[in-house]
Specification:
Oxidized Rhodanese, domain 1; 2 domains; 5-stranded parallel sheet; 4-stranded parallel sheet; about 10% strand; globular
């Protein structure tokens, strides 16, 4: 079975394996080009680069939200361009605790590809371990990737509107807590959260040194949020990127969750959708506007 999470020791041992494809997904919301620039300056030796903006999303609002899922043929072509095929073991890293890398982890699984892992600690951990690096842009041998989206792994705004009032459904908001409460909202047209959602910032899945917490710690975190009692779990964030970190952490903890790809950018742009503000522990979210 392919491990969902690998450490730097594992990657150093397997880095030159013909079946391993390492993917750099560094990306910064306020400066989207920075990640690719950093990749060109220095990256894990042999790693290829895939961009949130150009490879892992369609154009903003060409679908629900700021980072809609790309068309299947374009995503499969992007994978093939960097040498990923259906037998590849894909290992993904970023510089943000895995919160960007998990977008590709989730998307590969969405297309039925289970041989995919996250590098624990990402770029910072690799540097600290003295792992081999390279500069420039890798030129991998193109491959062919074939996959079909598993649409049962996602929900849209209408489905969320129905599910959010179901006491057996746990709706988790992966954004920073101050965005959940509505104290700040730097990107969306309205501030707050989807009524009924619980605040579960993705950063809560990480230790102080940027590694993933243990499965037991993650299980305890999500149990407290209501995951064990829920029949279904749905995750969202600002635009469907960092919510996949909660889904990944839930996976490590033994839970399954669905993604609302459009997330807050989609929900808040629809003026007919209700919103809530403030801090609402489990079962107390009633302030709706």
């Amino acid at each position: 079975m392919t491990p969902a999470l690998v450490d730097t020791t594992w990657l150093r041992t397997h880095l030159n394996s013909a079946e391993v494809v390492v993917v750099d997904t560094r990306w910064y919301l306020t400066n989207p080009a920075q990640g690719e620039q950093e990749y060109a300056q220095q990256h894990i030796a042999g790693a290829v680069y895939l961009s949130i903006e150009h490879d892992l999303s369609a154009a903003a609002w060409d679908g629900p939200g700021r980072h809609p899922l790309p068309k299947p043929e374009l995503f499969c072509a992007a994978l093939g361009r960097v040498g990923i095929h259906n037998q590849s073991h894909v290992v993904i890293y970023d510089s943000a605790g895995g919160s960007i890398a998990t977008r590709l982890w989730w998307m590969l699984r969405y297309y039925g590809h289970e041989r995919v892992s996250i590098l624990d600690g990402g770029w910072q951990a690799w540097q600290a371990a003295g792992g081999a690096t390279a500069s420039g842009v890798a030129t991998p041998t193109p491959a062919t990737f074939v996959g079909t989206p598993r649409t049962d792994m996602t929900v849209d705004a209408d489905q969320v509107d129905q599910l959010r009032t179901n006491p057996q459904v746990l709706l988790l908001d992966a954004r920073a807590h101050e965005r959940y409460t509505g104290a700040v909202e730097p990107f969306g047209p309205r501030a707050g959260h989807i009524p009924g959602a619980q605040s579960a910032p993705f950063a809560g899945n990480l230790t102080a040194d940027g590694l993933l917490k243990s499965p037991a710690e993650l299980h305890a975190r999500y149990h407290e949020l209501g995951a064990t009692a829920a029949d279904q779990i749905v995750c969202y964030c600002g635009s469907g990127v960092t919510a996949t970190h909660d889904i990944f952490a839930l996976h490590l903890a033994g839970y399954q969750a669905l993604l609302y790809p459009g997330s807050w950018s989609d929900w808040s742009s629809q003026t007919e959708r209700p919103i809530a503000t403030g801090d609402h522990p489990l079962g107390t979210d009633t302030q709706i506007s």
